[in-house]
Amino acid sequence: MASTAPTSSSTRVLSGIQPTSMSQHIGNYLGATKQWVTMQHDHDVFFFLADLHAITADPPEPAVLRQRSHQAVAQLLAAGVDPEHSAIFLQSHVPGHTQLSWVLECLTAYGEAGRMTQFKDKSARGERVSVGLLTYPILQAADILIYQAHQVPVGEDQRQHIELTRDLAQRFNTRYGDTFVVPDAFIPKASAKILDLQDPTAKMSKSLPDAGTLNLLDDPKVLTKKIKRAVTDDGTEVRFDPVAKPGVSNLLVILAAVTGSTPDAAAAQFDGQGYGALKMAVADAVVAFAEPFAARVHEAMSDPGELDLILARGAERARPIAEATVNDVYDRVGFVPPLARPR
Ligand code: TYM
User: Fold this and answer.
1) Can you tell me the distance from the alpha carbon of 306 to that of 299, in angstroms, rounded to the nearest whole number?
2) Closest Cα partner for 73 from 62, 87, 88?
3) 14, 180, 260, 269: which one has the fewest Cβ atoms less than 10 Å from its Cβ?
4) 209 phi/psi in degrees, rounded to 5
5) What are the pocket residues of ligand 1 if the criterion is a CB atom closer than 6 Å to any ligand atom?
6) Do residues 28 and 78 touch, judged by C-beta distance below 8 A?
7) CA of residue 32 to ligand 1 center, whole Å
8) What is the pLDDT of residues 136-190, one digit of tens each?
9) Which three-class secondary structure state does DSSP give residue 195?
10) Cα separation, 306 vs 38, whole angstroms
């Protein structure tokens, strides 16, 4: 195992989120960042904003991307990610991610990359797809392997990417000797896949129409309206049954996750009441969470200098680990190390 691996007493946790919009949606929070907050107290944790990944499809205006990156840090802080415990940094501040990605790209078959769902779906829809979208999961594998992470807390949609990461780690280890920790996905049971409110067969996503997405920074009135207009199912009974009642069950999952309950227990409160009562309760619970969250984001955004300092400190923690892994990998691959000459 490489010298950059953490000691056995500390499990290293790493995850990332793309700054592709001004606001996290409730799926990002319940599927991922909420877990980050819990895990930061008893693990060695690294969380980053995947800004390199954020230009793979329709790159935004430079000023917009910069603002989204700051917004994304502010939202991690508002969610409770604490820079005293967690290294919070930007992917573009640690050059090792792309340096390692190249080596892993050369170990990945073209067909293997082409089978990744995002690339397959977008190509099948005839959308413009960049080479960056094809290699995106390999950069993600580098993001993880470079820190020798044991656990990667993500939503269900990232499972395939973590599988590829494991395959690449094993492939490298077999060919060049034991180098990488083979990481596990850490996927929450209940809220791994929050569904779109307008189409409860699809996951809630930044790229779907806004009416089905609960952005945590939406105005409370907008959140309430979106929830009231959520597509529900036939019948009137409020019951947790994801197959027969996907729309209602999705609302129950959201209510339970926000209030610290379970979907079945949440359903029991609405015995004899209809979907309207459920929607009101979900709207109240979501607004009660989102309003103070938005206030914390606003406060954090009022001090961009502090946000930059947090990112600088995070990158300072991340960079030496990343550099050590890259040096080890480059050496194993057979690249001649540069001679360090005294100045
Ligand atoms: P991203 O930015 O799309 O999403 C961030 C996290 O939110 C989770 N998520 C959801 N969870 C439940 N229900 C949903 N509807 C939902 N939508 C999104 C995602 O699973 C993710 O955990 N490729 C990654 C970013 C990334 C990364 C990494 C993650 C880049 N490198 C290395 C982990 C490790 C992405 O696009 O996430």
Assistant:
1) 11
2) 88
3) 260
4) -55, 145
5) 15-18, 27-28, 31-32, 50, 53, 140, 143-144, 152, 154-155, 157-158, 192-194, 203-205
6) no
7) 7
8) 999 999 999 999 999 999 999 999 999 999 999 999 999 999 999 999 999 998 8
9) strand
10) 23
